[in-house]
Design brief:
The protein is α+β, with helices and mostly antiparallel strands. The protein has one domain. It contains one helix and four strands. A four-stranded antiparallel sheet has the order 1-2-3-4, covered by helices on one side. A hairpin with a 2-residue loop joins β1 and β2. The protein is rod-shaped, with a radius of gyration of 34 Å. The model has no long low-confidence stretch (mean pLDDT 85).
Length: 137
């Protein structure tokens, strides 16, 4: 009879010990948590960027559509809503001594301030100068 030959896997030092398996599982778990954290941070950043882009697009829409035409432009405040975004327009003098007494100015500069607020509370402020007909017209 021939002696029984042991396969290499039947040896007592073959394979992994329970400690080695636990260490490998711990390393895998830490790696998965790190990857999940990076993905979560990335998703929050993308969401914040999407909200900012929506806010800027709403401000651009207000800038283009809500400012009255030059003939109807007058000092004061306007307010409204575009979707979920609230906006306010303040029209007033640019500042300084733009109106010269006795001058026959056909046009006067007016400062137009636009503030748009998102549902989350973020705001964007835009300013522009528009020319209005002078007081004699």
């Amino acid at each position: 009879m021939s002696p029984v030959r042991r396969l290499p896997t039947d040896r007592c030092d073959a394979g992994f010990t329970i400690i080695e398996v636990l260490i490998a599982l711990a390393i895998v778990a830490v790696s998965i948590v790190a990857i999940g954290s990076v993905m979560s941070t990335n998703a929050r950043g993308v969401r914040a960027l999407e909200n900012h882009v929506a806010l800027i697009q709403s401000a651009q829409t207000v800038f283009v559509t809500a400012i009255p035409p030059r003939k109807q432009l007058a000092p004061g405040a306007l307010a409204g809503q575009v979707g979920d975004f609230r906006w306010q327009i303040d029209i007033g003098p640019v500042g300084g001594d733009w109106i010269v007494e006795g001058a026959d100015a056909a046009w006067l500069p007016e400062l137009v301030k636009i503030r748009v607020r998102s549902p989350s509370g973020a705001t964007v402020d835009l300013e522009t100068v528009r020319l209005m007909h002078g007081p004699h017209r």
